[in-house]
Amino acid sequence: MTWYVMAIILAGILKFATNPPSAFVAWILSKFELQPKLSANDVQVTYNGKLLAEREKLEFIDGFNNAAFLDKYFMITGTEKAYLNPETEIIPFVIHTKSGKNDMKFTIYCYKEHIDVVKLYKKKVIPYRVSSSTLQTFSIQ
Description:
With 141 residues, the protein is of the alpha+beta class. 36% of the residues lie in helices and 30% in strands. Strands 2-1-4-5-6-7-3 form a seven-stranded antiparallel sheet.
């Protein structure tokens, strides 16, 4: 009898391991995604040191959430400052938000052909490139 119960429990664990529920998979994947979907209620967006108005913030966050990921930059340890403060004349947009207990900061540099994003999370600098026509037109305004 105990072998029968243990076989059923083992079969259940094996079934879960080979085909987990999609909510569980989504939760696991969200822990490792590079560009998370942001909620406009939980973020502050600044441009040139000034907070964006509520309507502008909503448009900006919507453009950020819909941006297409292009590629991640290869970064050598010790070059973090070059990504955090690049020598460019473009004024970046800065997004501050929280992910659990940790602060997350996105610095967004909008160029004509692409958008560079520098993510600062848990003292790690992660630079990558996205494409978003909404953000590119937003930066022109």
